Hints:
The chain has helices at residues 3-30, 40-55, 61-71, 80-99, 107-127, 133-157, 172-189, 196-205, 210-234, 243-259, 267-296. The chain is mostly helical.
Amino acid sequence: MSEKLVLLMIQIVLVLVMLVMIITVTRAYVVHKEPLFKRFGLGMLIGFVTDFGDTLGIGSFATTTAAFRMTRYVKDDRQLPGTLNTMHAIPVIIEALFFITAVKVELMTLIPMTTAAVIGAYVGTHVTKNWHAPTVQRVMAGALFIAVVIMIIRMITTPGSNNALTVHGLQGWWLVLGIVFNLGVGILMTMGLGNYAPELIFFSLMGVNPAVAFPVMMLDAALIMPTTALNVIKMKRISWTGYAGVAIGGVLGVMVAAKFFTSLDVALLKKLIIVVSLWTIVGLLRDSYKSNLKKNH
């Protein structure tokens, strides 16, 4: 089977997954009367900004978590991880469709690593299903802290930037390590840690240029998020408030960012995201201990 045919099949799978998400969301609105269009304008702004940054490789979970908490968009923090995955699922599928053929990646790296990430997402949603609010808040604070550390490392050292673009994948034990790594990434995404920064660092350490990592990390996200979303929707562990605004704004953000992908300097934006993320970490930890104090009294 030719590489072009396999890539075409992957694109068809992505479109089918997006259709499943659209049908699921439509059913939530029509049958269950969920408030998808509530706070539409604010949601659209959040979606545009966060998915714009996501397309540039910054990620969207840290910025969306900060925005949601700042505006009280999601009232129950237990619903935050599932809501992040659900609201960004369709924009990230659009991202993957843009980038899946933009840079050459070996299919024997792309497919096994993505499959491992999807399995991790399925496992993760079941691991976290009975977590209480303080646990979710602390895990998300930890996930955000890891993301901040990785972002700072990337800003200071720009790992992998000198790696040759002639390496298009992993082989042997490095591929096995990549599969195990992505299994963990899939699990952690269900807990609020985005996959972009960890995967960029991982590929850089493996001698792969970060540009080559883009199709892998975007395909991973495009299949992890719907897998997580469809599970948490069944478990009723998401907030539907303003879904339409975030998703539509997110798609627009992806399209605009994809157009300017190679000409934008995002250094200042990364610094701002680090500050906002640290502020959000403090808020999550503070609220988790408040929840415990209320429970004990």
